[in-house]
Design a protein that fits this description.
Elements (H helix, E strand, L loop, with lengths): L9 H22 L1 E3 L3 E15 L2 E5 L4 E6 L6 E2 L4 E6 L1 H37 L4 H33 L2 E3 L4 E6 L6 E2 L4 E7 L2 E8 L11 E4 L15 E13 L2 E7 L11 E16 L4 E4 L2 E6 L3 E11 L2 E6 L6 E3 L4
Helix pairs in contact: 2-3
């Protein structure tokens, strides 16, 4: 209290206060300690995963004929219902013209039958013709009317078959493969293009000995795009989630699907490196603030005994794994900034 009473000038009191703060702050920095103790960590295994489309649909020709239009190529983005090509059958146009002529003929015959019915009704009122003659005229008109209706329905069927020559995208997505070229003759049901929906997953394969460790909901570290030579690190990873584990082991491997957002710009079939859980083990984990690196070596400062060289491993949650150089009970001192 004597140092900071009111008899001292304000400037001198400020100097003493700043000096005390700096001294006590420095002692706190150098007094940070860590007692080394092993703990259980999840072991990670580096594997490759492949970008796969969850749904693939095929745009098929509904009629046989010649491909006269093709408006997409591999990689084209399409919307559901968008016309991507057209198949044309010349016989359908001929059948349509024939039906038009048949409809015109049926219409003319029905007009003649209507005139004949009107004449027969007048003659019947005069008693010139019998009732059976009138019934025959009415029946003939009904038959022709129904023939005309059938011809118009058949024309609609042919027109619909002709319209089915337009091949439409069954779903929104990207064209993965085009199976035909313009001018090719196709049969009904033949594939024109394979379209993948805009829904992708990472499909990975894990060796059988690690299959029991992977479960739905497990987090997975996914590296950056490209065939990196090293495993993903904390600086360039994204985290995905296991959404499906396939119950079948094939060729000594189990498959699993990982959901990861923003995969639309990846190529289908592209491979990326991921880290998956492969069991648990004991390890030493030390925060990076307690490590220093000089001359290509990594050091830690012991509270009693100076510095010692350690062998660092991968960066994991909570710090850096230390493979060798320290043991349980060692007290580490954080290095000065």
């Amino acid at each position: 209290m004597g140092l900071f009473n009111s008899t001292f000038p304000a400037s001198m009191r400020l100097v003493f206060a700043l000096s005390a703060v700096s001294v006590f702050g420095a002692s706190d920095v150098f007094a940070d300690e860590l007692t080394v103790a092993s703990r259980m960590i999840k072991d990670q295994k580096s594997v490759f995963a492949t970008i796969e489309a969850t749904d693939q649909t095929i745009a098929r020709a509904r009629i046989g004929g010649t491909v006269v239009e093709l408006s997409v190529d591999e990689g084209s983005a399409v919307e559901e219902g968008q016309a991507i090509g057209r198949v044309e059958d010349p016989k359908l146009a001929l059948e349509l013209r024939a039906m038009e002529a048949r409809i015109a003929s049926a219409s003319a015959q029905m007009d003649l039958a209507r005139i004949e019915l009107d004449r027969t009704r007048k003659l019947r009122r005069k008693g010139t013709v019998s009732q059976s003659r009138l019934d025959e005229a009415e029946t003939a008109l009904k038959v022709l009317r129904r023939d005309l209706s059938a011809a118009r329905a058949e024309r609609a069927v042919i027109a619909e078959r002709q319209a089915e020559g337009s091949v439409k995208a069954p779903t929104s997505g990207r064209v993965l493969r085009v199976d035909v070229t313009k001018g090719k003759v196709v049969l009904p049901g033949e594939s024109l293009a394979v379209i993948t929906a805009n829904a992708y997953v990472l499909r990975l394969q894990v060796p059988e000995r690690h299959a029991r460790f992977i479960k739905i909901g497990d987090p997975v570290s996914v590296g950056a795009r490209g065939m990196a030579a090293t495993a993903p690190t904390n600086g360039d990873t994204r985290t995905g989630t296991v959404i499906k584990v396939y119950p079948e082991i094939r060729h000594g491997r189990v498959s699993a699907d990982v959901k990861l957002g923003d995969l639309g710009d990846f190529f289908v079939g592209e491979r990326v490196r991921v880290m998956v859980a492969a069991g648990e083990r004991r390890a030493f984990v030390v925060p990076a603030a307690f490590l220093s690196r000089r001359y290509g070596l990594t050091f830690v400062r012991l509270k009693h005994g100076g510095e010692t060289v350690v062998q660092p491993g991968l960066a994991i949650h909570g710090g850096i794994e230390i493979l060798s150089g320290i043991s349980d009970g060692d007290v580490l001192v954080r290095n000065a900034p």
